[in-house]
């Protein structure tokens, strides 16, 4: 996996993060937010590691643990969740790399985890013979550190020299150290950087492209690197020559080294906003050339001289109209010369479809598609007559995800799953017929369960799809405990996924589970996302509330038995929904959330999300943000359901101050609320599988108490 792939995977939770700072240390130039801070009696809770704030968090943990952990069901649920999460018969998902398969594995023995490799033949076998490359538990013990593994980025066809990313306690900020796979050791006097939010990639075996914190003035207002420098082995990083510098108001600067059999391409990205990209090429002779592309693109890679680009906006070029959502091929040489004269449409989704994933192998491009939120897989190849498509036969009515492709291989790994069918991993050797090589055992009894897709009608008449999983003999009497999950942001689609832990903990108790595919997500491509941006954000909340109302109207459930859950941007969703329609719900889970939308842009990486939410410093944008910002819209005379809010001290992506202040304000007005703060764990609020099991058990016990016991 390239460093870009790893980073963009992390971005799916919202965005990458900055090095943690106090909100009070945010860049100057935010007069409205600063005025808000002075008037905010709970501003002190934004001091991430402040003694008073930590004591406040620990006191709340004690109260929450007393109630939830002392529930006689807690330990049973926690132990079962841990058993499932750490089971040795899980699928060991791997990346095709260096002619082998890489995997990162955690279990009861390897709590922090091990990075390991196997040959492809061994990986296909039932009993894979793994070779451990790096043991994170041992490394942490040897160095006296709380290391959390954040991935690696290897160079060369043998993938022998790698950059390893290590986080202190789960933060997104990492240290990077060069590693030799052959000797299974860190390279003495090799490449190494200090902790920072940073992006590195290989130019060649002795040269890195580095975007990191180079000192005062080298970071954007969003907390990302402004500079990309060229770092030669054995030289001082601080003196490395500059190849790209972006503005302080831009979101970031990033390098991307693409190495394929036909040659290497070095790209540099300026990110004016979270959803726009300006691309440059670092040519072999050392020149930096701006590519003739519009800003509304999502670069996917390079293949045989073509830039592979997904369109976020329409583009009139070369006598064609390229539509948002299309995947296109643009000749790199033409883009570098300043004028695109030919362009090919590789794939154009229909009105109900969207491209969810793009995997570029040695000889083909693989697309996992959504059509009415159901997965399909297509391969495309360029021949003498242009690009040709081929549908790949795999199970229907579920999710299909490209697990891994490799630029030096014609093999592909693909996964299939749905809500009730355990995952199956397929390999397509040499691009051939998919063959199942690994399957996840059933984790719960699904014989009496069913999953179906329904549609609700939102406030403006838009049909909003949702999935519901329930017992086949469910009575429509309004008494079914139901959990509604949503996200609705950043063009991220929610698709059917096997409910390994929640299946037993919730469905077997008789609970129903619902996933809402609301606007703001990527279920129908860029148009579905852009329909709920900025001034139109309320549409996402309306869609979510419409699904809740549909569940009540159809007598699946009633408000006293309906709970909602969401994390990160989904935490904003549930926070808004709780404050706007408290009458609809009996339980609310608000996880690692954004909640103070008047100050979010000053807190950690918040400024990078203004393309999604808007800028509170602008009066017209502040007006519509203020109408939904949960923290500002708490009212003393409103009866709210008792929410369960949780976050992590080590979350350097979404500031823990959001959750802390929300809880403190609710309590100050006499509202009941439960709060949990994991003192490590990063944006997932769990640094390892054992912690994830505990967080799961806390949520299930809370939901059981609120929706089933009553």
UniProtKB/TrEMBL annotation:
Name by which UniProt lists this protein: S9 family peptidase
Keyword Hydrolase applies: yes
GO biological process, one term: proteolysis
Tree of life domain: Bacteria
One GO cellular component, as annotated: cytosol
Domain Peptidase S9 prolyl oligopeptidase catalytic: 505-706
Domain Peptidase S9A N-terminal, chain residue ranges per copy: 37-428
Species per Swiss-Prot/TrEMBL record: Niveispirillum lacus
GO molecular function: oligopeptidase activity; serine-type endopeptidase activity
